[in-house]
């Protein structure tokens, strides 16, 4: 499973809580970025496709190697990125879009400390975002609520996909 969305949408927080709830392993996809990508974002420069493709390949490869249930937090902003991750993983991947307004997400980004992504890049993230379509193995969850409610909404949607 991939928790996706723009920077600051809660991938790490939701991922850790969801992994606990489901008995899964969680990995923050930021850990798979090469140092050059992190340096670029730290300087306030948005990543382009050339920067993202190798990282997305690593995300897919990590999912392919996973033993047991694996959740990775990865922006996966474009449909093509999600398709690449799934193709690289070689299996069906569920994408959970953590969706929120720019105002909600900017407030969350301003409240966190120690992250390399500046709020200046949020607009470029929203400009790049292609929310999942109905024909993708994906669903969206509104993040404008407490963490526990977000996790419950994800679990409920996952149960609905199993039937």
UniProtKB/TrEMBL annotation:
<keyword id="KW-0418">Kinase</keyword>
<keyword id="KW-0808">Transferase</keyword>
<comment type="pathway">
    <text>Carbohydrate acid metabolism.</text>
</comment>
<comment type="similarity">
    <text>Belongs to the gluconokinase GntK/GntV family.</text>
</comment>
<keyword id="KW-0311">Gluconate utilization</keyword>
<dbReference type="GO" id="GO:0019521">
    <property type="term" value="P:D-gluconate metabolic process"/>
</dbReference>
<dbReference type="GO" id="GO:0005524">
    <property type="term" value="F:ATP binding"/>
</dbReference>
<keyword id="KW-0547">Nucleotide-binding</keyword>
<protein>
    <recommendedName>
        <fullName>Gluconokinase</fullName>
        <ecNumber>2.7.1.12</ecNumber>
    </recommendedName>
</protein>
<dbReference type="GO" id="GO:0005737">
    <property type="term" value="C:cytoplasm"/>
</dbReference>
<dbReference type="Pfam" id="PF13671">
    <property type="entry name" value="AAA_33"/>
</dbReference>
<dbReference type="InterPro" id="IPR027417">
    <property type="entry name" value="P-loop_NTPase"/>
</dbReference>
<keyword id="KW-0067">ATP-binding</keyword>
<dbReference type="GO" id="GO:0046316">
    <property type="term" value="F:gluconokinase activity"/>
</dbReference>
<dbReference type="InterPro" id="IPR006001">
    <property type="entry name" value="Therm_gnt_kin"/>
</dbReference>
């Amino acid at each position: 499973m991939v928790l996706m969305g723009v920077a600051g949408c809660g991938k790490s927080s939701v991922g850790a809580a969801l992994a606990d709830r489901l008995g899964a392993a969680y990995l923050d996809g930021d850990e798979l970025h090469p140092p050059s990508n992190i340096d670029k974002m730290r300087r306030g420069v948005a990543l382009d496709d050339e920067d993202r493709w190798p990282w997305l390949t690593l995300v897919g490869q990590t999912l392919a190697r996973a033993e047991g249930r694996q959740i990775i937090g990865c922006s996966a902003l474009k449909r093509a990125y999600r398709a690449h991750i799934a193709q690289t993983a070689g299996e069906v991947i569920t994408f959970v879009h953590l969706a929120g307004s720019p105002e909600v997400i900017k407030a969350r980004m301003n409240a966190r400390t120690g992250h390399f992504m500046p709020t200046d890049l949020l607009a470029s993230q929203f400009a790049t975002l292609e929310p999942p379509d109905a024909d993708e193995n994906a669903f969206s969850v509104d993040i404008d609520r407490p963490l526990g409610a977000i996790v419950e909404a994800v679990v409920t949607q996952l149960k609905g996909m199993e039937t």
